[in-house]
Specification:
alpha/beta, six-stranded mixed β-sheet, 8 strands, binds zinc ion, BTB domain-containing protein
């Protein structure tokens, strides 16, 4: 047992190498890995290891302490991270098979969140970039990609949109602002007030809550998305019947019924009227015109989405993001 290490500590089953050159302690779990590998991937670890020990480094989440050691045992560094999260970071940089984490299968949301949070903390840009690239597939910037999605959430979210709260914080932490418009829209659309206030709990017992500014953004976004939806529905109904309408009276009645149906209280703005079964009652000219109007309106609302959720204009919004 290393000097100064209490007996209650246990070795990590996956990341304990007898010939490792550094011992990292997260809560009651010890990781023994290779100093050089970590220092090469993370400027934060490189700095930490280059300092004479013992040393105390402060970061946002609390102190990280590197304590001295004799020549026979590797130095010991105390981390403020949860062991579950730190293990995920080690897995991301040293996967035990050939497949990278994001190619092997769909990672669960705690894995993505931990990799993003700790990757940011230890300045491991590649790991953070991988997380952002993965998330952009599900919270995309071009409307075409959003429209093509079968599910609103990535598979690892297990249909629980509460996790979106955590990723709003993580996207802001890492500067991945292009993720935010869809994340906020899902928040506003799927979560009730109490859930918005309570936030989300993670596997390691940590928690993410929305900042007061983001909570306020959600309230305003609910109003603005609802307004955008109403205006857009009204706009389309006002542009019909089509000039080539063959059943003017009947089509007007169907349009009135469609409008009432679509005016539910949901703030979700991407509603295609032509997909309502009631729209089948329109003549073929009106159906074709409605489909065109739907497409135009979807693109217009998408272009405004960052502003509708209170984020202002985002450069490059609507364009395909290149992999980082
Ligand atoms: Zn018609």
């Amino acid at each position: 047992m290393d000097r100064g290490v209490p007996d209650a500590l246990r070795k990590d089953e996956e990341f304990w190498f007898d010939d490792g050159t550094i011992t990292l302690i997260a809560e009651d779990v010890q990781f023994r890995v290779y100093k050089g590998l970590l220092a090469r991937l993370s400027p934060v670890f490189a700095d930490m290891f280059s300092l004479p020990q013992p040393v105390t480094l402060e970061d946002k989440t609390g102190p990280m302490r590197a304590t001295g050691s004799d020549s026979a045992t590797p130095p010991v560094v105390h981390l403020t991270d949860a062991p579950q999260a730190f293990r995920i970071l080690l897995k991301a940089i040293a996967p035990d098979d050939d497949a990278a984490m994001f190619e092997a299968s769909h990672p669960d949301c705690f894995t993505i969140a931990s990799c993003m949070r700790l990757g940011h903390k230890y300045q491991m840009d590649k790991e953070v970039g991988q997380c952002v690239d993965y998330l952009l597939q599900y919270f995309p910037t071009p409307y075409m990609e959003f429209d093509a999605l079968e599910d609103l959430l990535p598979p690892g979210f297990e249909d629980d949109s509460t996790y979106v709260i955590g990723f709003i914080n993580l996207a802001q932490l890492t500067g991945a602002i292009h993720l935010l418009p869809v994340l906020f829209m899902i928040c506003v659309w799927c979560l009730d007030g109490d859930t918005l206030l309570q936030g989300v709990g993670w596997l390691d017992a940590s928690k993410d809550t929305l900042s007061p500014a983001d909570l306020a953004r959600c309230f305003d976004a609910r109003r603005d998305l609802t307004r955008a939806r109403t205006n857009s529905l009204r706009q389309r109904i006002a542009s019909l019947p089509s000039s080539g309408c063959s059943h003017l009276g009947a089509c007007k009645n169907v349009l009135h019924a469609l409008f009432l149906l679509a005016m539910s209280d949901e703030p979700y703005p991407f509603v295609r009227l032509c997909e309502f079964p009631t729209a089948q009652g329109l003549c073929s000219a009106c159906q074709a015109r409605l489909a065109t109007l739907d497409e135009e309106e979807m693109s217009l609302i998408w272009a405004e989405l960052p502003e509708l959720v209170g984020l202002g204009q985002i450069e490059g919004w609507g364009e395909k993001r290149e992999r980082e």
